[in-house]
């Protein structure tokens, strides 16, 4: 397992849980993350990001089919949080769709845009497990290179830099 460019990252506390890929599990995943981030000023943004990433996994990947699974990983350090959601894969690439100013409804299809707007960094990578979408809220941990949002885990092979980020 890589450290994402800095030796410190491997010591960041991290927790993971696997959930059935059903809509009712979004609430359960939110409770899991809320318990880990209790007292964090990033809690509210983390809840929105988690909800969007989990829902995307259900709507756009194999994880939303019968028997599907979604893995949620949370890492927390003093000034930041990493939320990673691993689904069981998809043939399509994630797309960050900017809401159009021409009256297009924004209730649908803009989850990654919202997550990227709240996160300091957003990225994703594919591996044998599926696709992992990672959002870092707040500051990157000390010693992290900033090249990838993967503070704990494998280096990202594709992704996007910060899209706005309120968490700083």
Question: Can you give me a brief rundown of this structure?
Answer:
The chain is built from 3 helices and 6 strands. It is an alpha+beta fold and 168 residues long.
List the helices and strands and how they pair.
Layout: E1 14-20, H1 25-36, H2 43-60, E2 69-77, E3 80-86, H3 111-118, E4 121-127, E5 130-138, E6 158-160
Antiparallel strand pairs: 1-2, 2-3, 3-5, 4-5, 4-6
What does this structure look like?
The protein is of the alpha+beta class. 23% of the residues lie in helices and 25% in strands. It contains three helices and six strands, in the order E-H-H-E-E-H-E-E-E. The chain has a six-stranded antiparallel beta sheet with strand order 1-2-3-5-4-6. Strand 2 (69-77) and strand 3 form a beta hairpin. It is globular.
- Calculate the mean pLDDT score and round it: 79
Rg over CA atoms, rounded to whole Å, is 15 Å
Give the structural class. alpha+beta
Into which percentage range does the β-strand content fall?
25-35%
Give me the side-by-side strand order of the main sheet.
Answer: 1-2-3-5-4-6
Uncertain stretches of 5 or more adjacent residues: 1-9, 150-168
Shape verdict: globular
Largest sheet features:
6 strands, antiparallel
Order of helices and strands: EHHEEHEEE
Span between termini: 27 Å
The number of distinct helices, counting runs of at least 4 residues, comes to 3
Number of strand segments: 6
Could you estimate the helical fraction of the residues in percent?
A: 10-25%
